[in-house]
Structure prediction request, 871 residues.
Amino acid sequence: MSESERPVSGEQVERIVRSACAEGMRLDVVGGDALEGYGRLREGARRIAMTELSGVVFYAPAEMTICAQAGASIDSIEAVIAQRGQMLPFEPMRPHALWGRDGEPTVGGMVATNLSGPRRVSTGAVRDGILGLKLVNGIGQTIRCGGRVMKNVTGLDLTKLNCGANGTLGVLTEVTLKLQPKPETEATLVVSGLDNEQAVEAMTAALGSPYGVSGAAWLGPGMGDPLSRTALRLEGFSESVAYRAGRLAPLMQAFGETRAIEWHESQALWRSIRDVEHLAEPRDRAIWRVNLAPSETPDFLVRLGATALAHSLDWGGGLIWLATKETEAAAATVRAAVPSRKGHATLMRASGAFRQRTDVFQPPSDLELKLARGVKASFDPGAVLNFGRIYPGV
Amino acid sequence: MSHIAFPRPDPKILSRRDSILEGLSAILPPERLIVDESGRRAFETDALTAYRRLPLAVALPRTTEEVARVMRYCRDQKVNVVPRGAGTSLSGGAIPQEDAVVVALTKMSRILEINLADRYACVQAGVTNLAISDEVAPEGFFYAPDPSSQLACTIGGNVGMNSGGAHCLKYGVTTNNLLGVRFVTVNGEVLDLGGPAMDAPGYDLLGLVCGSEGQLGIVTEVTVRLIRSAEGARPVLFGFDSSEEAGECVAAIIGAGIVPVAMEFMDREAIHICENFARAGYPLDVEAMLIVEVEGSEAEIDAQLGRIGAIAHAHNVRSVKESMSAMESAQIWKGRKSAFGATGRIADYICMDGTVPTGQLPEALRRTREICNSYGLRVANVFHAGDGNMHPLVLYNANDRIESDKAEAAGMAILCMCVELGGCLTGEHGVGIEKRDLMPRQFSPEELDQQRRVRAAFDPEERLNPAKVFPLTQRVA
Prediction:
């Protein structure tokens, strides 16, 4: 185990990075240690653990804005904003089930991975809900990106660039988030027994309807029910949810037997979809996250054939969660089945050894890799931060 | 107005003009390469008309490959390139220079693919913003960001500036509705960023390119998200005796857990200007007005407006007027969207675009009035209240040099005030040349250097849209 630094201020983060930079020593950035199983293995000799930086910098409920230190747990922030009837719009997943770790996922890790939950399909990704960031770049300078206001086009959008950058460009120290009112209620229509193709059709019809569907997912047979379930969520004020459920139900009846589940049962279902609980076991399987245009999904699954040991769909069919054996052959089959330029596959869970010898993220083109290396060098010329997390050398 | 400096045109490039034009004419036919002075004159400015520079030449490519060939040629010849859409930039983002070639994308105006099942449209960069929504409206879909210039402005320009609009409160700005671009680098390489599949892994270069003001490459094709329209929408007008009450009402609506599709603010001056122009039925006896629009079925709209109306009454609303028909709704929006044009009929104006935290809106309005009063100038305020994006229109007479200078100074003071109140210099119009020299007010030297190094990863010699966004004095450390 490498040694850990635990900074308690942004200035300390600057000092740690500057001294690592001067010594030519690589640093691995760690939040709540919940995401260690994600991404390529890093090559740091030292760790910088961010959990001491866990406070709320400010919370302005009337502006629907909160600023938190990067080491704050997602749970703690959600608890603070829930008291004022607000929520994070992008429904961040909790990695506990999938990776089997009990670390506390942090706001910084949420931004660094840009892993969004089911509501992504209607209200956008993590990156769409971040108004501003403060980070320490690879030469130990504090850089503010974006700000605290809803509309801001001043200069290059380094906020977006750092969402999903896996901490390879800077050590995040503060995150300013855009919030949404928590819906008064929710209901989910569940259509039973649809196959992949029918499910994608049903979800496409629902998302193409004017009824404001905020989640559209499919769980296979045996994932909590003997029959497959296609779930369509409606959220809002109660009279509006009741009205829209009443309009959407007949559309869904055309696809299969449809029933409605309410409030707590609906919430529990979407939590399990968000956290991919249904694919967590058995633990020796590799788990992939594949993104396609929804209409490409049924053919993709046909091309995979028996390589897909189990799968579920989210984002109206645009996101496929997939379990395969942890073998090179299975990985090659998944990569080959993704239509070129129209989708991408990420190896979300596999042993460290496997993640070291297989591409974790969609392999970039030469030009993409050249630009990625240029961007990396512009923030972190000494290649100090999370070196090798995304691609070899990045 | 003459405060914004341009770098001296490169005499070496100017002296080689004939040979450069000859080289370009090997790539583009004569009807799509503008070299004569009267033709170039049409491209000498954008919507920031106080500044004009005649470009070396104007290229009008029709394909990505032609853009790539122009880019390779200009790289080899060390010629600067200024990308341009419809030229509606309010910040001078498309203003050329004497030693630069304008690459205007207006001939690339084909809609390439509409996919309603997967809810996206792929179009060439010269397609206008409104043409996308018009194309899919019969099927009940639309493209959400709606800048006031949407009839003219191109989607490529929207990507360049990350444009917003009145309906962004619910649906987000360009970057939140953008799925992919085809992009030509300064070296003439072609790259696809993003696409119909969401959230590509690796660095979010799509997010970086959006709003980069044409300094990272030229966008030639754009894939945008389409949204199914709600069953209906209805705006309502609320009149108030003071801007403060209107501002507090906005905060209270959001605080109550309601996010309308749009919440627009106008002060007395703006109400009168717009009403005279559009006859939209705005109340003329109030100090401030909000246009609040909600969506859904008739019953849902009634329910939401019931909640919003109760909040407005608690904030001493003086007049309430609900739209009773689609025609009335269209009039209400016509008044708002023609605010800039209507103002232009009564005076010259400069339109500022700072954003402040919504809690600071009353303070920002008060200080805007103070600043304009101190220069002896009138100001009309019309802006997106829900997201704090202000648009004070500072009125002046362009034929009066002293007054012009005062207007520019007042505008700059307003933007600095926005930054001071925790906001930013520009919410949706971009930095361009207009706000370039104010960048150090918002960013530290280290932060500006960081942004500039990212730009250098794409364009190390700063040949693309030069002398914009970053102060001329600032050089990469």
Q: What stands out?
A: Chain B touches chain A through 92 residues (CB under 8 Å). Chain B has a mean pLDDT of 95.
